[in-house]
Design brief:
The protein is an alpha+beta fold. The chain contains 5 helices and 4 strands; from the N terminus they run H-E-H-E-E-H-E-H-H.
Length: 149
């Protein structure tokens, strides 16, 4: 991609999605929802990688072209820009539980591209970003509710 193409992009995020033991059949539902987001232009998947961590903590990459054990994600075979490297896989592996499988995705938030482009064109920049886990919000709301009751 050229510099000009990057200047027109929205914010880029990465996520690590973990499943117990292996990719369950319901993993196909996650893939279908991701495909829908891509089809609607909400996100653009720039890179995707799969891995497994055995009970001893050993990590292995899973190649979609060679392994059909990742149901529903076949549509993403070949979605590789080279953004996810071995170092990224090792870092992701540190947060995985033993005996799990994971998908690591890098995507552009296309829905936010107009704001990001306008920000850059006016000399601005995104200086911080973060995520609030839904579980943390639920816990905070439960704690607030317990105090008020």
């Amino acid at each position: 991609m050229s510099v000009e193409e990057f200047e027109e992009m929205g914010p880029i995020d990465y996520v690590v999605l973990e499943w117990p033991t292996a990719f369950p059949d319901s993993g196909g539902e996650v893939a279908r929802l991701l495909t829908d987001l891509v089809d609607r232009g909400t996100i653009r998947i720039l890179d995707i990688a799969f891995m497994a961590k055995d009970q001893e903590g050993n990590v292995a990459a899973i190649d979609l072209a060679e392994d059909s054990g990742v149901p529903g994600f076949e549509a993403f075979d070949g979605a590789s820009s080279g953004l996810i490297g071995d170092e990224d896989l090792q870092e992701a592996a540190q947060v995985l539980e033993s005996g799990t499988a994971a998908a690591i995705l890098v995507w552009e938030n296309r829905w936010a591209a107009p704001v990001a482009v306008a920000l850059r064109k006016t000399g601005g920049q995104l200086v911080a970003s973060g995520r609030l886990p839904v579980q943390a919000i639920i816990a905070a709301l439960d704690a607030t509710e317990a105090i008020t009751n």
